[in-house]
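REQUEST ID: PR-0412
SUBMITTED BY: lab tech R.K.
PRIORITY: routine
TASK: structure prediction, single protein chain
INPUT:
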Amino acid sequence: MTIEHYDMDDYEHIINLWERAGINVGSSDTREEIEKMLNRNPNLFLVGRVDEKIIAVVLGGYDGRRGYVHHLAVDPEYQNKGYGKNLMDELMLRFKNMKVHKIHLFIEKYNRSVIDFYMKLGWEIRGDLVMMSFIPDENLYKWKL
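STATUS: complete
OUTPUT:
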């Protein structure tokens, strides 16, 4: 697998990959929102290719203080071959080179296989935090695209 920077020309490919991999695609995943993420974090938005086909993607984010991992996905046909780990290793190296102290990610509780994947990579479940969300504009937020 080769790891490359994401390009907006690949938008439809990553949306399709996320959906096939079981990631809930919502209003923050529109072309415009993804382009904002790319412009803010161009070196942290990565795709993995095998024979020119995108088989993996991850959005890394940095807010100036903490790093974030969003929407890591591997095409179901290519899962359990180390591609997700390789993509995460590259993203973690980039965060390390940026001197990021702490990195966070969010997993839906029902997704046990994803929780297990990250635990094998050394991630820990935090028991001292409660995740909360606030939707400032109900008209903007939509569950599905």
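NOTES: The chain has a mean pLDDT of 92.
REVIEWED BY: pending
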